[in-house]
C-alpha cells in the first residue's frame, strides 16, 4: 500500500460564520520560535475588516435579544467543545509558542476554565452592574445594563489562546458582538477557536476573527462608524494613542492597552446603562 499524503490544515479568516480567504488574496507565513514553517495564515485587509463589522452588526439583534440564561448556556457549550478539542489546541500552542506540552496544557485548561467563568456571569452581571436606585417620591427607579453593540478588539499578541479568550469572552457576556484581530505571531489557535464557535450554538457573525497585521487593520476598526467600542488590550506596540483619537471621533468606548484581569468590570466596560422610572401603584 502506498503511503498516503497528509492533509495540511488551511487557516482562513472567520467572518459571519463562514471561513473565507482574505479578499486581497494575501497570506503570510506563521513560523515556530525556531523559524520552522507552520502554516500560511490569511493577511486580513481593510475590506475584510469592513465585512467583519457588517457581519457583527447583523448579529447584534439576535445575540443581545437572547435571554441571559440562554447566552450562558451557549457559552458553556463552547467550553464543552473546547474541552473535546483540547489536544489539538495543546499541539498548536506547543508549535506556535515553543512551550512544553505541560505548559501548553496549563494554558488551554486555564482558557477553558476562564470561558466557563465568564459563561456563569451571563445571568448574574446585571445584578452587579445594575441597581434599584433610592428616590424621593412614589416611584421605582431601576438602572439596567445593556450591550453597547459591536466591539472591536486587538487581542494580546504574546498568547495564542488564553489572551484571546480573556478579551473575547467578557465582551460576549452582555450581548455584544465582536470583531477581533488575533495575535499576528500566534494566529492559528484563534482560527481553531472560531471553528469551535461555528460548531457550537454561537450564531454566525457574533465572533469574527481577522488574522494579519494589527497595525494595518486596527486603524480602520478604530475609525469605523459602525463599531461601538474598542479594546486595545494587545495594541501596546502600536501607535495606540492615535487609535484612541480615531475612536473618539465616533464616540467609542475604549480600553487602553494593559494587563487583562478577569473581572465583572471588564463585562461592564462594554455596556450602556438604561435608567427606567415607573410609578408605584397607589392603593
Automatic annotation (TrEMBL):
Domain Aldehyde dehydrogenase: 22-254
Alphabetically ordered keywords of this record: Oxidoreductase
PANTHER family cross-referenced by the UniProt entry: ALDEHYDE DEHYDROGENASE-RELATED
Name this polypeptide is given: Aldehyde dehydrogenase family protein
SUPFAM superfamilies: ALDH-like
Keyword Oxidoreductase: yes
Tree of life domain: Bacteria
InterPro entries noted in UniProt: Ald_DH/histidinol_DH, Ald_DH_N, Aldehyde_DH_dom
Organism, as annotated: Microbacterium galbinum
UniProt keyword Transferase present: no
Pfam families assigned to the protein according to its UniProt record, in alphabetical order: Aldedh
